[in-house]
Amino acid sequence: MIKRAFAFLSPLPLCGVLLCTTLQAQELSADGRRWVEVEVLVFRSLAVGAGEVANPGRLALNWPVGMRALDSLDSSYAYPFPADLPPTVAFAAPQGSPFSTAPAPGAFEAEEPGPLLDFTVPYAPALPDGFKVLDYAHDPYIALDQRDWQLSGVARNLQGSSEYDVLWHQGWRQPLLPRAQVAAIAVQGGVEADTHTALEGNLRLSVGSGVQANVDANLWFSEFGQPAAGEETEWTLPPLPQVLEQLVAVPSAPPALNAPPRRDGPIPLDANSVQAVAPPPAIARIWQLRESRDVNPSQLYYLDHPRLGVLLEVRPYVLPELFVPESTDDF
Fold first, then answer.
1. Taking the alpha carbons of 260, 302, 138, 185 in that order, is the dihedral positive or negative?
2. 3-state SS string for the chain
């Protein structure tokens, strides 16, 4: 098991929980919902213990319908603005404004009016595909800035070890809702092979019992290459959902020195449409970590597996109050 070499994480024994705190009712945000900040670290062991065998008959690999990718703040500026859409708002900049080429009154008469400012795409934050500027502090499913990560030290220790390799490290904020109302977060990381990456899968965080949150993890790690002599098992990966080009890639855990290139980019939202058919990669074996459990807030959890490991922490988060100006003088 991977947990045998985790002495550097904590002096406490690893029995599922590393940190213990007193559970208290979490304060609700202004929208009446309980928000949390999630941080997840997925890594693999570079050595497999004796007797640990991957079993293709027990695999349940699937991309859930409605899955989504984490956004980045750059996503607002990568919106696919159509070039042929007629303007919905157009007005002339007033004379003397910084947007106008016309001189201020009293200087001299302008031969041409100021430029027209055309907004070709309506600002529609309530629409699923509408244009909006993301709010890092208030919008859900935005990848946390690495400066807000709290497991960076653990990730560095793992990546610096000769026994482990960090595949995916991300954080985000979201409200806790019933499972049916929550989208799964897509996970991809590690080396590439054709259209696939070594690490694939999804995570879903929803309401648990009491103050707890429920975590559904379905992750699989593929060892690309030809099977060993005498092994005739055929391994099959589910086709990838179509990657949406307008999403900006979210950087994940930095690769180790001299590590093969990895792809930690956007994942499709629609699990029903797939990429063009491509030759499947040669796979020696596939390892799957599949677990569902309730987790307490502000506790660091460790999901153990012969080949994969997951560190996960769910922290309470309260939406900051929105600034509402009382007059134009407050701008």
1. positive
2. CHHHHCCCCCCCCCCCECCCCCCCCCCCCCCCCCEEEEEEEEEEECCCCCCCCCCHHHCCCCCCCCCECCECHHHHHHCCCCCCCCCCEEEECCCCCCCCCCCCCCCCCCCCCCCEEEECCCECCCCCCCECCCCCCCCCCECCCHHHCCCHHHHHHHHHCCCEEEEEEEEEEEECCCHHHCCCEEEEEEEEECCEEEEEEEEEEEECCCCCEEEEEEEEEEEECCCCCCCCCCCCCCCCECCCCCCCCCCCCCCCCCCCCECCCCCCCCCCCECCCCCCCCEEEEEEEEEEEEECCCCEEEECCCCEEEEEEEEEECCCCCCCCCCHHHC
The DSSP annotation for 92-105 comes to: EPPTTSTT--SPPT
Residue with tokens 């929803």: 206
Sign, CA torsion 316/34/219/253: negative
| Strand, helix or coil for residue 241 | strand
CB-based contact 191:198 (threshold 8 Å): yes
Nearest to 213 by CA among 312, 126, 308: 312
Count of CA atoms in the C-beta half-sphere (13 A) of 162: 0
Structure-token match 């029903």, residue found: 272
Per-residue pLDDT of the chain (331 residues; tens, 9 = 90+): 555 445 445 433 343 433 333 345 568 877 888 999 999 999 998 876 655 667 776 788 888 988 898 988 777 766 666 665 555 544 454 555 554 555 555 554 545 555 444 455 666 666 766 677 888 888 999 999 999 999 999 999 999 998 999 999 999 999 999 999 999 999 999 988 877 889 999 999 999 988 899 999 999 999 888 766 656 677 888 888 764 333 333 444 444 444 444 444 444 444 445 444 556 678 888 999 999 999 999 999 999 888 899 999 999 999 988 777 676 665 5
